[in-house]
């Protein structure tokens, strides 16, 4: 090979590596352009928690529902418009996802300090971490550098986000479709250690489970009685129950001991332990016995989820209003 050819080949390899690295996220992405980004996000969330302790839970759920649809690209935040069919109207989100006002407050605070710099997709990732650590859970270095989509995918939101009525095989397949494994599924389900769920998401377990005429046999009987009081037959389908009946607003590993006590609220929660022979069982038991193991896995799995198909480099845009495409 002539030396000129060799230099050209080296250049091609270098360009390839550069391109690849620009498609990856990193923890210092805003260290020059918006050095206080994490504390700004955290400050707004602290405020929001004072008016409603549920807000942190609602924010991490937004990041999850964002990442499972076209990757972590802020698509869930777009409102309906001429070209956008909002993901907010998809079945898993309609009358359910919340916290959008807090995202807007964070965006306003960031635009004041570092205009045009921090993406809405990164706001969701940062808000998820701040919400977990403010509730007593682990902290981790959030990887950053995502950009915002100019499109939404309502149909994708209807098909890709797991439903509380699906069985473990179906839910595992939805995680696997975005590159997440069984440990990610169990660890991330541990986010149901805080926040609320509406009666309509679990009432099928309370009276006539799968047409049996009886409640779900995997429900602890005194927990069942409490839930039947909260969600009477013919009562309101939107009444709220705590996902974790023991420590509703704290991020801890009680979610997993609840499962061991047959106190999983959603069918999809209890299935992690009650599906016979499932690979999830030993992971649940480990996280129940060892909060440190849960926190470590949770942080790693949040990073894994946050890495789902981000837009980077010159793809997408930095929206100036999370609800709208720039200029739209
Ligand atoms: C494994 C599959 C999952 C299913 C089937 C599922 C389903 C649900 C459902 C039905 C609700 C209640 C919604 C309502 O009643 O309006 C809920 C709430 C919640 N989910 Fe999940 N979820 C899953 C995984 C996750 C993951 C991976 C996270 C985050 C890492 C998460 C975080 C939350 C939080 C924090 C809430 C409470 C939100 C609030 O209070 O506003 N979930 N989930």
TrEMBL record:
Protein residues bound to substrate: 162
Primary enzyme class: oxidoreductase
Active site: 65
Keywords: Calcium, Disulfide bond, Glycoprotein, Heme, Hydrogen peroxide, Iron, Metal-binding, Oxidoreductase, Peroxidase, Secreted, Signal
Cofactor binding annotation: Binds 1 heme b (iron(II)-protoporphyrin IX) group per subunit.
Domain of life: Eukaryota
Reactions catalysed, as given in the entry: 2 a phenolic donor + H2O2 = 2 a phenolic radical donor + 2 H2O
Domain spans labelled Plant heme peroxidase family profile: 24-326
SUPFAM superfamilies registered for this protein in UniProt: Heme-dependent peroxidases
Binding site for heme b: 192
Keyword Calcium: yes
Protein family: Belongs to the peroxidase family. Classical plant (class III) peroxidase subfamily. Belongs to the peroxidase family. Ascorbate peroxidase subfamily.
Protein name: Peroxidase
Gene: LOC104597566
